Amino acid sequence: MIELAVRRFLDEVPALAPLKLVAGLELRGRGDVQLYRVELPGPKVSKDIASDAKVRLSLPRSHFNELARKGRIGDWREAFEKGEAKATGIDQVMKLIVNVVERHEQRSRTRKAKL
User: How far apart are CA 64 and CA 4, in angstroms?
Assistant: First the structure.
């Protein structure tokens, strides 16, 4: 499921595909927390603590499953804005990802407006 989510995200924002990055993913369930290490490019996913992660994502498993299956960039953004998902990490890496995603959204809005 994690690989599916990463691939869908990178298909939508291909400019991030060549980025070399290790991310930590924390999925919270009912009294349970599962930690994953996601390495890009790839993605290579392992159930492990990502001690070398540049970015850490934390969200409830139920929200993650929904976003992985059906989520688009706007859905991910909404989850972060509502506080359902949280991201922490190195400021430069976080800003890079946010800028690339925002530019992608601006381009897609411009294309839709022209059609």
Answer: 11
CA 7, CA 22: separation in Å to the nearest integer? 15
What's the number of domains the chain is made of?
1
Structure-token pair, residue 18: 């060549």
Report helix, strand and coil shares of the chain as percent, to nearest 5. Answer: 50, 25, 25
pLDDT digits (tens, 9 = 90+) for 32-75: 999 999 988 878 888 988 888 999 999 999 899 888 888 888 88
**Is residue 8 classed as helix, strand or coil in its secondary structure?**
helix
* CATH number of domain containing 42: 3.30.1050.10
pTM of the model: 0.80
- CA distance linking residue 96 with residue 16, whole number of Å: 9
Range of the domain at 43: 2-114
Nearest to 51 by CA among 25, 33, 24: 24
User: pLDDT tens across 7-29, in order?
Assistant: 888 888 888 888 898 999 999 98
